[in-house]
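ok so I'm stuck.
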Amino acid sequence: MLNFIIAGKDSTSTAMTWFIYMLCKHPEIQNNVAVEIRKATNMRDDATNVEEFANNVSEEALEKMQYLHATLTETLRLFPVVPVDAKMCFADDVLPDGYGVKKGDMVAYQPYAMGRMKFIWGDDAHEFKPERWLDQYGHFQPKSPFKFTAFQAGQRICLGREFAYRQMKIFSSILLGCFMFKLSDESKTAKYKTMLNLHIDGGLDIHVFNRFG
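replied:
not stuck anymore, here's the structure
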């Protein structure tokens, strides 16, 4: 329970902040996400309030939001909540590339850097492209967790991964189904703050507009 409550609070809020930021930088993607959400929830055009919309966000509707899932994942590829992760060696070992490590050594990998490596993701590694996660039918296609390391991999993979996705999709569907977002200063580029989690330095200043009416 502590893992879900503590690890799932700052990490989710940080991911959602970068998600909103990227949607503001790519308004066409924001619109595509909103269209999918409203279609998945069968929301009427004459809906007038958030509560009415939230009541339509069912498990069935969330499963239909494949593009939203891809957009959240693409955000985490470029802005992983934990940008650097370290492990302690319990015994002498040899890494796959032949490098030897000793008991007590600390080995760190960097999901932030890995998400931008062209030899892993291709020449468009620095581009924000949710479509890279979709197959020809528009269905979400997960990558190996050893390639997409935002949730770790193997025996240490995040136990709250599916919970985090569900939580983010619920929040995102209500927010994007009911509101539009724009940066207060559209020329400003967000910079990260060096912390345990990848926070936006100075926070994110945005304007919010009602989609109803």
